[in-house]
Amino acid sequence: MSLNPRLVKESFALIEPVADKAAAYFYGRLFAENPHLRGMFPPAMDVQRDRLFGALTRIVWSLDSPDGLAAFLGQLGRDHRKYGVVAEHYTAIGNALLATVRRFAAEVWDAEIEAAWVTAYTAAANIMIESADADAGVSPAWWLAEVIGHERRTPDIAVITLRLDRDLPYLPGQYVTVQTARWPRVWRTFSIANAPRGDRTIRLHVRAVPGGWVSTALVEHTRIGDTVMLGPALGTMTPADSGRDILCVAGGTGLAPIKAIVEHVIGSGLRPAVHLLYGARRACELYDLTDLIRMESAFPWLRVLPVVSEQPGYDGVRGRLTEVMERLRSWAGHDVYVCGPAAMVDDAVRRLQRNGVPLTDIRRDVVHGEP
Ligand SMILES: NC(=O)C1=CN([C@@H]2O[C@H](COP(=O)(O)OP(=O)(O)OC[C@H]3O[C@@H](n4cnc5c(N)ncnc54)[C@H](OP(=O)(O)O)[C@@H]3O)[C@@H](O)[C@H]2O)C=CC1
């Protein structure tokens, strides 16, 4: 049976408005039929439910773009090795998923739609399984890392240096998932804030989010000598290396992957003009400015512009980061990297496009921090 994206999308559209209920039903069904799988998931399932629907939504709406979808599923398959997921688990998950869509799209459900879902799920699961199998031959499922540096730059933000037990291949701009001893099986994503160094050290920029389990554990309860677990590097916001001039827009700790990219440009020998716009609400939250100014003074082609949005007395550039970006000049012809709060990223992309920067010149990743 060939793939029928239209039937899958039409039935999925009925489930999206009741995503919470459908995700709860899915996990209820999965664990009722396979109680042994419960131990693979974290005790609190709220973030897990959002992730499931986030991934499912992306897969369903990308069914018409097989290349992008295959790359996403390949990453997902590799990343799932760290949970101990093996081929048999995909059958259990497929059965629970089918039962869920059958129930929540009951008003349109028929044999043809069922066949379309089975075909789509089988194809997606096969890509994930094949990618995980291929990765198993060349790479560990997870890494251990020792905390060798912990700098509290603000009450909420820490810059953490880790030394990995083995090489972790990654490209500048990518992110990893992190699990702390305090919260077993709870994984959160953080960007690697440095270009690869060859000494197995990486840096993370972490803001403790209220109610955020992993971010709070990392900022407030982690000490030098502690160990954390990391998953493989993921993400597509990697350097274009085109030699063209570069605009980087970083909001808050969204600076992390941008800094890795700037370090990469420094090491590449290419000397494009790089503008780095770095935004925070208050000057005291520009937690990495000292280091950026040091880089700026060493490399005359790098311009760092801090922007503060909520501090009337601040005597530097004030305003919304994205508005300042738009006012400053035209960015057409630049390679652009944008990272920060999702709404800021969307706003930046909208403004850039409006001012003649094509989407293909803009790189960004959706890195889900803590809720
Ligand atoms: N730690 C990491 O490794 C990474 C983090 N991220 C993400 O980056 C984000 C960083 O958050 P945080 O450090 O709390 O940043 P903040 O919430 O402190 O925001 C940083 C800057 O972005 C501006 N901003 C926020 N929303 C908008 C908007 N809609 N339009 C224009 N400007 C906006 C803020 O100004 P104002 O709100 O006043 O307009 C502020 O100047 C998180 O969402 C995190 O998930 C992404 C990649 C890596």
UniProtKB/TrEMBL annotation:
Its cofactor is heme b; FAD. Its EC number is 1.14.12.17. Pfam families: FAD_binding_6, Globin, NAD_binding_1. Residues 140-240 form the FAD-binding FR-type domain. PROSITE patterns: FAD_FR, GLOBIN. The keyword Transport applies. It catalyses: 2 nitric oxide + NADH + 2 O2 = 2 nitrate + NAD(+) + H(+); 2 nitric oxide + NADPH + 2 O2 = 2 nitrate + NADP(+) + H(+). Keywords: 2Fe-2S, Heme, Iron, Iron-sulfur, Metal-binding, NAD, NADP, Oxygen transport, Transport. Transmembrane segments: none annotated. Residues 1-133 form the Globin domain. It comes from the Bacteria. InterPro entries: Cbr1-like_FAD-bd_dom, FAD-bd_FR_type, Flavoprot_Pyr_Nucl_cyt_Rdtase, FNR_nucleotide-bd, Globin, Globin-like_sf, Globin/Proto, MRET. Belongs to the globin family. In the C-terminal section; belongs to the flavoprotein pyridine nucleotide cytochrome reductase family. PANTHER family: NADH OXIDOREDUCTASE HCR (PTHR47354), PROTEIN RFBI (PTHR47354:SF5). This is nitric oxide dioxygenase.
